[in-house]
Amino acid sequence: MEDARMLELIDILTRANRAYEQESREIMTDFEYDALYDELAALEAKSGVVLENSPTLRVGHEIVSSLQKVRHDTVMLSLDKTKDVAKLETFLHPADGPVAGVLSWKLDGLSLVLKYAQGRLAAAITRGNGQIGEDVTHNARFIRNIPKEIDFMGSLTLRGEAIISFSEFARINEALPADEKYKNPRNLCAGTMRQLDTRVAATRKVEYYPFSLVAGPDFALKSQGLAFLKQQGFAVAEYHLVDSENVADAVEYFKDAVAARDFATDGLVLTFDDVAYSESLGATSKFPRDSVAFKWADEQKRTRLLDIQWSPSRTGLINPIAIFEAVEIEGTTVERASLHNISILEGLSLGVGDEISVYKANMIIPQIAENFTKSGPAGPPDACPACGGPTAIKDENGTRTLHCINDTCVAKLVHTITHYASRDALNIEGFSRQTVEKFIRLGFLKSYADIYRLESHAEEIMALKGFGEKSFNKLVDAIEKSKQANLANFIFGLGIDNVGLSGAKLLCRHFDHNLDAIRHAPAEDFADIEGFGDIIAQSLHNYFRNEDNTAILDAALPFLSFIKEETLTADADSPIFGKTFVITGDLVRYKNRKELQNLIEARGGKVSASVSAKTDYLINNNVLSASAKNKKARELGVAIITEEDFINFSDL
After folding, report:
1. φ, ψ of residue 268 in degrees (nearest 5)
2. Is 59 inside a domain boundary?
3. Are residues 172 and 289 in the same domain?
4. Is position 52 within any domain?
């Protein structure tokens, strides 16, 4: 029985690790994972048997992305963990006498190793499986608080955590469709740093906090190494020097400070300050002996599940939400928690009336820890809660999700019109989701085209609570302003699957800002656009071949006039006009790549993320670099030029 259970636990934990580390998604809560891991470790200790593929022996998982793999100079091991402050005190008072320690945040992001040579950032490598990581240097250069140059001219290696703050997480998620939203900042950060296209990282505020100097100047104490990194301009993770007498007080300080911090943390890390002493201790096959992770003991409250609600999105994804009797956790009232998908709902065997325990993951995000009565699982609804239309279950990589398949679903309509009015689309100020919902409910809106007919309901709208003549006139003025639109923003506002704002700009430039040509183009013409592929091409083709979509589009167009971009009036004799550029490496004359890209596009050129046969120039101040882009450019005969070359030949 024990062997069978161990095999089952190994399979479950391996799948959970693979999803978490390689796919930036979660198939179970942290609480569930820790409980299963501890159960496996206990069975192994009891039986004296540890199977070869046990997660208790493994540091990580093999890498499956197309990023370049790099072997670490020293293995990045996992840390042993505890939730008991007394164990930290014992840790700092071993048999041979008390020792000093460094206590710092255990940030919940993506671990990165940075390497510097001759004072410049040379490489950024993810933790990967602890032995082999992925090269994400191209994205690390866009992390704002990573110094690109430092005073120290020797070889330097440091470890730290790349994170995305809660506020940045909220900003990015707000702009994403419901089915593309990230579950937490950690997943968003990992997904951002592992992108092949640097434009993603460039638009997201990733931050980096070193916690260890691995190689460089020799220091007797780790705290001296951290002080050195501060002097070089790094935003070192906050740390306190502690001993067995005051470590408990330091833990309380960090615990009290969590609520005021704008980042995710799942605890603290304690390591011995003395470098020589640490090195003398060595490591097990999985853990270093000089460090330990302290995980917050989650405050759990027992409560009763009152309901499972299902929340539809613009794309039709319907997420389950647990509603339970309100409880106080970590100083706030909690009464609902997202269950994310059907698979998690089924894994917890949730049914209405069940006795459950609730906690806050990382002391922030409400989660269900355990179901004591397991009367479920409650089945997903056959009808969409918003429109009553049929639903369907999709299974992707073992994760089951519920979708509304009714194209006229009211929830989809709310999200579609809200997206159309959003800042990066038609930018209709004051047209909030609440206003959209109200107008749909009253029958004023059946599509985004009806926005331009709202004046016919003037008296009814001004009579609504929260609306008066002044508010209505402001809304009318905003709608009127939106009638002069940029075509790319309009196409983005249509909410076509897989077509973001940058894709809409590429589309418009390719078709010379001719909407009629875009509407009637075959799929293969879309596929010819650099940066597009078959999926985007098919999405565009399907959208403009859908009769309902074209009917709404035809209803809206009489109200709209599209502003001609500067690219349409650019000098056709300019050496930039009609040329395709790729920009890589650090810039000197321009503030950033975006500034240079905007300049090129304003003069009729195009900027692509990757070098191809369609590329005319690769801009790289390091012309002799052995980078992948330089190598590709040489293979294809693409000219590699510096900023100065670009400025000289373009007369800028």
Report:
1. -135, 165
2. no
3. yes
4. no
For the chain, what percent of residues have pLDDT higher than 70? 90
CA distance 29 to 46: 26
Same domain, 124 and 224: yes
Confidence of residue 362 (pLDDT cuts 50, 70, 90): low
Q: Encoding tokens for residue 640?
A: 């590699």
Residue reference for tokens 């490591």: 283
Whether residue 475 has pLDDT greater than 70: yes
Average pLDDT over residues 503-509: 83
Annotated active-site residue 564? The verdict is no
DSSP string, 282-324: -B-SS-BTTEEEEE-----EEEEEEEEEEEE-TTSEEEEEEEE
Beta bridge partners of 110: 162
The runs of H, that is alpha helices, within 442-521 are 458-462, 469-482, 487-493, 501-510, 515-520
Tokens of 601: 């596009």
Farthest-apart Cα atoms in the chain, separation: 85
Mean pLDDT rounded to a whole number for the chain = 83
CA 355 and chain centroid, separation? 33
The predicted structure's pLDDT at residue 61: 42
Omega before residue 312 within 30° of 0, cis: no
Position with higher pLDDT, 296 vs 524: 524
Q: Are strands 606-608 and 580-583 parallel, antiparallel or unpaired?
A: parallel
**Which pLDDT value is given to residue 59?**
47
Residues 576-604 have a mean pLDDT of 79
Q: Tell me which of 46, 69, 81, 106 is the catalytic residue.
A: 106
Name the least confident of 241-245, 496-500, 555-559. 496-500
The pair of three-digit structure tokens given for residue 316, joined into one six-digit string: 């039709």
> 434-440: long-range contacts at Cβ-Cβ below 8 A with a sequence spacing of 24 or more?
435/475, 438/464, 440/410, 440/413, 440/414
Based on the domain organization, do 88 and 224 belong to the same domain?
yes
pTM: 0.47
Name the 3-class secondary structure at 561.
Answer: strand
Task: Read off the tokens for 510.
Answer: 């390719």
Give the torsion sign (CA, 310, 313, 316, 319).
negative
- The boundaries of the domain holding residue 339 are 301-399
Residue with the larger pLDDT of the pair 20 and 568: 20
Type and span of the H or E element at 608: strand 606-608
- Among 533, 563, 593, where does a domain finish? 563
Q: Are residues 603 and 589 in the same domain?
A: yes
Gyration radius of the chain over CA positions: 28
pLDDT tens, position by position, 51-106: 766 777 654 444 334 578 888 888 888 888 888 889 999 999 888 788 999 999 99
Phi, psi of 324 (to 5 degrees): -135, 170
Tokens of 471: 């508010």
Can the peptide bond before residue 377 be classed as cis, meaning omega within 30 degrees of 0?
Answer: yes
Number of folded domains in the chain?
5
For residue 53, tell me if it sits in a domain: no
Report the alpha-carbon distance of residue 18 to residue 170 in Å, rounded.
26
User: Which H or E element spans position 208?
Assistant: strand 207-215
Cα dihedral 420, 422, 424, 429 in deg (nearest 10): 120
517/67 Cα distance (integer angstroms): 37
**How many residues make up the chain in this entry?**
652
